[in-house]
Amino acid sequence: MRPGLTGIRNTAGQRRALRRAVPAGKGAVLAIALAAMSLTLAACDSGSTAAGGTATGPAAASSVKVTAHEAGQTRAQVYESVRQMTAVGKQLFFDASLSGSGKLACASCHSPDHGFSPANSLSVQLGGNDMHRTGMRAAPTLKYLQSVPAFAEHYHESDDEGDESVDAGPTGGLTWDGRVDRGSDQARIPLLSSFEMGSTPAKVTAAVKAAPYADAFRAAFGEHIFDSDDATFKAVLQALETFEQTPELFYPYTSKYDAYLAGKAQLTQAELHGLQVFNDEKKGNCASCHISQRTMDGAPPQFSDFGLIAIGVPRNRALPVNRDPHFYDLGACGPERTDLKGRDGFCGIFRTPTLRNVALKKSFFHNGIYHSLDQVLRFYAQRDTNPEKFYPVSKGKVRKFDDLPQRYWANLNTEPPFDRKPGDKPTLDEAEIKDVVAFLNTLTDGYQAEDKPGHSAAAN
Ligand code: HEC
Ligand code: HEC
C-alpha cells in the first residue's frame, strides 16, 4: 500500500475491517472513567446498539492525563471533574477572545452545524491577526477522532483485531500528517499559529480570566490555576481535549447508515448500489482504506483505517503558499511536520480521513482543491485513465502528480482504483459515481427515520 516503506500493507478490506475501534490504553483511572462515561452516555443516546463498542478506551484524541490528585479521586469525583472540564472546554471552543485578532474561535473553522468542519467553501480558512492569512490545509472534521490511534511508523493490529504480523505502515496521529497524538497537543497548534488564532499563553490566560466562565474554569482546575500563564494554558488545552470527547457531539453514530447496520432503516436502490461499488475491490475499493464494515466485536465502522497514504492529489494553485513553485506540502515528511524530515518514504502521505459526515464538507482533500463529492469521485475514477482532466497540460504533455516531486512517486498508491492507464475504462462510470455519492450522503449524523425509531420498526 505504501511501497518504499513496507510494500506489504494489506489493504484488502476484509482484514483491515477487523480492526477494533480503539486499542487498549495504559489504564489510567480517568481514562477508564471517561470510557465508562462515554459508554453510559452513548447508551442513553437514542438507545442505539451501534454505540455499544465505540468508546472502549483512550485513543489519540482522548485519554485525559491523570494528575496526581485526580488519581486519588473516587469515580463520582472523576465524573464531576470531567463534566466541569467538558463544560469549560465547550465555552473555550466558541470563544474568539482567545485569538490574537479577537475574531477567531475554534468553531470558526470547525462549525458544529457542518460536522465540525468549515461552514464556507474556502479551500483554506483565513486567520492571523489581520484575518487575511492562510495556511496550506483544509480544515478537517473533528468528529470521530476518538479512535485515531497514536502515530506509528509501523502499525500492527492486535491479534484479535486482525493479523498482528501485518505491517500496516504509517498510521494514526492527529492532523493531516499525524504529527501529534493528543487533542491537547493539537489544540496548541491553532492557538499559537501565526496564520490561525495567533495567540500566546499570556493572551489566552488574560482572555480566560476576563471571560464569563472564569469562575467555572477555576472550579474545574483549582483556585490557583490563574497563578501561572503556563498552567492556565495547559488547562485550556486539556479542557478542549475533554470537550472533543463528548460522545453525543463528536461520535454519536446517528447516521442513516448506522440505522441501516442496526436493521432500523433501509437504503434506497441508489444508496445500496453505491455501497456495493464503494466496497467492491475491483471498482471503488474505497473500503480498503475507508472501512465500511463493523469490526469483529461489533463496533461501528469509522470509515478510515487511519493509514497515511499518497494518492497524488493535484496541486491547488489557488493557495497563496503555492505561488512559490518550489514549495510543496509533502505531508508526513514536512514542512509542517518536522520529525520525519528527510525520510523520503514519508513524502506525500496524508492520513486517510473519516468519511462520516463528509457530505457536510465543502472542500475536500488536504489542500481543499475540490468542492464537491462528484469532483472527488471523478478524481478517483479517472485519475489514471484521463489524467489531463486533473493535472496541468503543457505542450501536449500532462504533468501528472504535479504536487509531488518525481523522486517520491514510488510512495504513490497503485491499488484499485489507481491501477489504470490512459485508454483504459475509468473505474467508475457516471452512474456509479452518482450512486457512491448517494451512499456517502447516508453517513451524515442526525438521521431521523420517518416513523419513530425503536418501536414497531424494530420488531420487523
Ligand atoms: C483558521 C482555521 C482553524 C482554527 C481557528 C482552528 N482549526 Fe483546527 N484545524 C484547522 C486545520 C487547517 C487543520 C488541519 C491542520 C494540519 O493538518 O496541519 C485542523 C486540525 C484540527 C484537528 C485535527 C483533526 C484531525 O483530523 O486530525 C483538531 C482536533 C482541531 N483542528 C481542533 C481545533 C481546536 C480545538 C481549535 C481551537 C483551539 C482549532 N482546531 C482551531 C483549522 C483550524
Ligand atoms: C489507498 C487508500 C484509499 C482509497 C482506496 C480511497 N481513499 Fe479516499 N482518501 C484516502 C486518503 C489518504 C485521503 C486524503 C488524501 C489527501 O488529502 O491527500 C482520502 C480522501 C478522501 C475524501 C476527501 C475527504 C475529506 O475530508 O477531504 C473522500 C470524499 C474520499 N477519500 C472518498 C473515497 C472514495 C469514495 C473512494 C473509492 C472510490 C476512496 N476514497 C478510496 C485514502 C483512500
From TrEMBL:
Subcellular location field: Cell envelope
SUPFAM superfamilies: Cytochrome c
Protein name: Cytochrome c domain-containing protein
Domain Cytochrome c, residue spans: 84-241, 269-444
InterPro entries associated with the record: Cyt_c-like_dom (IPR009056), Cyt_c-like_dom_sf (IPR036909), Cytochrome_c_Peroxidase/MauG (IPR051395), Di-haem_cyt_c_peroxidsae (IPR004852)
Secretion signal span: 1-42
Key words of the record: Heme, Iron, Metal-binding, Oxidoreductase, Signal
Residue stretches in coiled coil: none
Region (Disordered): 155-180
Pfam families: CCP_MauG
Iron listed as a keyword: yes
